[in-house]
Write a structure and sequence with these properties.
The structure is a single chain. The chain has an 8-stranded mixed beta sheet, with helices on both faces. Strand 10 and strand 11 form a beta hairpin. It has one domain: P-loop containing nucleotide triphosphate hydrolases (Rossmann fold). It is α/β, with parallel strands linked by helices. About 30% of the residues lie in helices and about 20% in strands. The chain is globular and about 60 Å long. It contains 8 helices and 12 strands.
């Protein structure tokens, strides 16, 4: 660094170790009638680990605690949030913007399936179109006053995840995993992406952690020994929950009754998500 340095790197042609490059700002503002206090991204390094289930359970828990809660379903090609909540209505709107659909208990939901004529219609779009659609769910939807918005991210670390991280001010992410060794390796990729994007990691959730037989009460680790505590320690974060395999939870999702699921899986989540 020069002794005459003003720390204004934009007007300096020198090359030095302390040079600060201005990072491009791709962030966009939500709809002018939306007032969202906290945005939590729920991500996974791969599909099939129950990310949408965890997103749903988190939203239900915070709603039960009295917070105004919303879910932005960013998994455009595999939207499952409306199914879990039993939502069959369609999005309405006006010249001002679109209105999210409310669940039975008042959780606001926006998903591509709420715009399609039939929920089984495939979304055969290229990456940039999908990413832009997610951005519009943020800018063109009138969310109103929301305490906690949970974004159900698509699996992986591709276009949509990058768009969400760059476009929307994310207050933190929750990473969902399962016990397999392979999945643990992929979780580390998600952790490293979050660190690269400078987004705080709230913690990890392990789904399908174990199964307890109702008859003999013996616990079985169907997908092998857990590695989540090791990963959490390595990356200086915490394990938020270990969700067991329970048939009634799967049945509730299939029947659109996720809001009826009882359990103390996220009793302490309010502490980790922070004050409003």
């Amino acid at each position: 660094m020069s002794e005459n340095c003003t720390e204004n790197c934009s007007s300096c042609g020198e090359t030095c170790d302390s040079r600060k490059e201005d990072k491009p700002d791709f962030s966009v503002k939500p709809h002018e009638l939306s007032h969202i206090k906290k945005v939590i991204g729920v991500i996974s390094g791969k599909g099939g680990v129950g990310k949408s289930l965890i997103t749903s359970l988190l939203a239900v828990e915070m709603n039960r605690k009295g917070y105004k809660t919303a879910i932005l379903d960013a998994d455009i090609t595999g939207p499952s949030i409306p199914k879990a909540f039993g939502i069959t209505g369609k999005v309405t709107g006006s010249e001002q913007g679109f209105l999210p659909v409310k669940s039975k208990t008042g959780i606001d939901v926006m998903s591509i399936n709420l715009l399609l004529e039939h929920e089984t219609d495939p979304v055969v779009w290229r990456g940039p179109i999908i990413a832009n659609t997610v951005k519009q769910f943020w800018t063109d939807v009138i969310w109103g006053d929301i305490d906690f918005m949970f974004i159900d991210m698509p699996p992986g670390t591709g276009d949509v995840a990058l768009t969400v991280f760059q476009s929307i001010k994310i207050d933190g992410i929750i990473i969902v995993t399962s016990p397999q060794e392979l999945v643990s390796m992929i979780v580390e990729k998600a952790v490293k992406m979050a660190r690269l994007m400078e987004i705080p990691i709230i913690g990890l959730v392990e789904n399908m952690s174990y199964f307890t037989c109702e008859d003999c009460k013996k616990t079985y680790k169907i997908f092998g020994e857990s590695h989540i505590d090791k990963i959490a320690k390595e990356y200086n974060t915490q394990v938020l929950a270990k969700i067991p395999i329970k048939p009634h939870i799967a049945e509730a999702c299939d029947e659109g009754l996720i809001e009826s699921v009882e359990g103390n899986y996220f009793d302490e989540i309010e502490t980790y998500l922070g004050d409003q």
